[in-house]
Amino acid sequence: MERSGLSGQMIAAVAATNGTPVWIYDAATIEGQIAKLKSFDTIRYAQKANSNLSILKLMRRNGVKVDSVSNGELDRALAAGYSPEAEKGEVVFTADVMDRATLERVVAQRIAVNCGSPDMVRQLAEKNPGHPVWLRINPGFGHGHSAKTNTGGPSSKHGIWHEYLDEVLSILDAGNLQLEGLHMHIGSGVDYQHLSRVCDAMVALTQRVRRPVPNISAGGGLSTPYRAGEKPLDTEHYFRLWDEARNAIGNMTGTVPKLEIEPGRFLVSHSGVLVGEVRAVKKVADKWYVILDTGFNELARPAIYGAYHEVSFLTPAGEPVKGPAHPIAVAGPLCESGDVFTQGEGGVVDFRPLPLPKVGDLAVFGDAGAYGASMSSNYNTRPLAAEVMVEGGEPRLIRRRQTVADLLALEG
Ligand code: LLP
Fold first, then answer.
1. Is 49 exposed, middle or buried (0-12, 13-18, 19+ CB in 10 A)?
2. What pairs with residue 340 in β-bridges?
3. E strands along 122-271, which residues?
4. 335 given a catalytic annotation
């Protein structure tokens, strides 16, 4: 069963009040995930996973800092109450490139910048000597749940290629830039064998820097289960590997760096569900299609990555739909044959053994709190869905449903 901690009755009540499609998040589940990472000195939330203001405020209340990857995400961080000044360490801007407006902005507000390309370092050095920077290094290898989420190695656009570290350090010195830390995010979806390689690479890099490194960041990428039976990450094991790495750095340099972790998915994935209404149930040859009022304009991960999300059906009263299992594909309303939630990589439609729902029942997608709402689009002129957060047993609308009038107001 899905892991959000939300009951069927709560899901049905929120759908009845707010309509469908609707995203629902459970605040306590997010807090539970935060608590699992408390050994790290800093938890920095990669808000790209879900940047709703109420989620950011919840993170802030729980002592979690924030990462922004665009000018818009900087606005969100500040609107949630985070302070921009690098000295406070609350916000870091991470990217491989900075447009002109963002460059002006990070300088004006003294926002620490995690640079993923030598050009970024150069531009900051020219614009604002002394600016606080992190260096995001590509150690030469990577890992990810899909080729599209692998962010290290020679095929990745991310980070400063390790062989250019010395060159970048000269730019740093020429511009008197302050080194805040070294950062490595090599992909989304962790395995431990791979992780020790990353830790070793961090230790080796720190040695090459030949100056104090006040912080190191392990990046994000902590994997979370999506399928029944998958084991959750052992966060203490994860911490131990990084803790050993930073102690090795301390022994080598005389300064033990502070340890940051930068998860997105790990903090929010389980907390969220996407709820749609069943609008058609049709037989195609010997199998079934259940078609909903929500599609890949809401939850894009299956269509983009062949990602798996558990789906279950509820009656309008919130009871699980029961009955014999049939081979069922669950699809959306978009005018595109790839609009199927149950598909594998390469777009192969997956018919899952599920009880047959009726029109008017609800479909609930689990583990949809990360890269769900934040990757939605307006394809087929479908307005963005509402978002609701349940806190202390009370549901609260945290984003109203967009209207088509909102969209048309931008055009003419
Ligand atoms: N830090 C950096 C620099 C990143 O590029 C990312 C993710 C993270 C942290 C957070 O990674 P996480 O802990 O959430 O795995 N849309 C894809 C994931 C793309 C991740 C991009 N970067 C998905 O739906 O799986």
1. buried
2. 331
3. 132-138, 160-161, 178-183, 215-217, 258-261
4. yes
Inter-helix orientation angle 165-174/192-209, to 10°? 50
Orientation of helix 27-35 relative to helix 53-61, angle to 10° = 40
pTM for the model stands at: 0.97
Ligand 1 atom closest to the CA of 263, numbered from 1: 13
Residue 333 tokens, joined: 């309303």
Query: Helices H, strands E: what count in the chain?
Result: 12, 18
Taking 3-state DSSP, the helix, strand and coil percentages for the chain, each rounded to the nearest 5, stand at 35, 25, 40
DSSP-derived 3-state class of residue 21: coil
Residue at 248: amino acid letter? A
Reported as a single tens digit per residue, the pLDDT across 111-168 is 999 999 999 999 999 999 999 999 999 998 877 677 677 777 888 899 999 999 999 9
CA atoms within 13 A on the CB side of 136: 27
Burial of 408 (0-12, 13-18, 19+ CB in 10 A): exposed
How many CA atoms lie within 13 Å of 114's alpha carbon, on the beta-carbon side?
29
Please report the pLDDT score of residue 191 as a whole number.
77
Separation of alpha carbons 329 and 343, rounded Å: 8
The answer to whether 363 and 290 are in contact (CB under 8 A) is yes
d(CA 11, CA 185): 35
* Bridge-based pairing state of the strands 132-138 and 160-161: parallel
Cβ–Cβ < 8 Å for 59, 82: no
How far, in Å, from the CA of 371 to the mean position of ligand 1? 9
pLDDT digit string (tens) for 26-53?
999 999 999 999 999 999 999 999 999 9
- Centroid of ligand 1 to alpha carbon of 284 (angstroms): 37
> Which residues, in sequence order, are bridge partners of residue 25?
272, 389
116 lines ligand 1 (CB under 6 A): no
Q: Is 1 a residue whose pLDDT tops 80?
A: no
Q: Which DSSP state fits 162? A: G
